[in-house]
Design a protein that fits this description.
By secondary structure, the protein is of the alpha/beta class. 42% of the residues lie in helices and 17% in strands. Helix 5 links the parallel strand 4 and strand 5.
């Protein structure tokens, strides 16, 4: 299992659980075992696959700027970022430092990404538009280079009423797995 990052909030949560367990007089070995067995939440910084040296992560539960900020917090590799949805005037400016530092390309997903594009037009070399998750994965595979990370982290709520970001995350995973199978044949 590849982990995107162990962010400050994940470390804080683990420390709080450890302290609480210690207060309840749970044996140190049991605490250590529980923390080492802990898995990430599905669709939250969830490793999908490595294809042609590019690591793909599903962070589709990141439906706010803050959630995406926590994901970007410790990334040190170049990122192809798939984001967007129904931004309805979302203020993405808190992401600017992380985006400037790491994002090589942004693939906007969905019909309404005017604000997302406007916020980062001077910070990212390439901004593309995809109408479907499958198209976004295909575009990302063409833009990504070895050692890059392709990250699906919407930073806003899903567009439309028919499909949640979690459902889009499932489609993202399926698309990456399909890409992986195609490349390994």
């Amino acid at each position: 299992m590849e982990y995107l990052l162990t962010s400050r909030h994940q470390k804080s949560q683990s420390m709080a659980a450890g302290i609480s367990s210690k207060i309840l007089e749970i044996r140190k070995e049991n605490i250590k075992q529980s923390l080492s067995d802990m898995e990430t939440m599905r669709h939250r910084q969830d490793y999908v696959a490595t294809v042609d040296g590019v690591m793909y992560y599903d962070d589709s539960k990141a439906e706010s700027v803050n959630a995406t900020w926590f994901t970007f917090e410790n990334i040190v590799k170049p990122v192809i970022w798939i984001a967007g949805g129904n931004d309805k005037g979302t203020d993405f400016s808190d992401l600017k430092p992380s985006v400037r530092k790491n994002v090589r390309a942004l693939i906007c997903l969905g019909p309404n990404n005017t604000n997302l594009r406007k916020t980062f037009k001077n910070d990212i070399g390439e901004i593309l538009q995809a109408d479907t998750v499958e198209t976004a994965v295909e575009m990302a595979s063409q833009v990504a280079k070895e050692d890059d990370i392709v990250l699906f982290s919407p930073a806003c709520h899903a567009y439309g009423n028919s499909e949640s970001n979690e459902e889009k995350g499932n489609r993202y995973i399926e698309s990456v797995k399909r890409l992986e199978n195609e490349r390994n044949q």
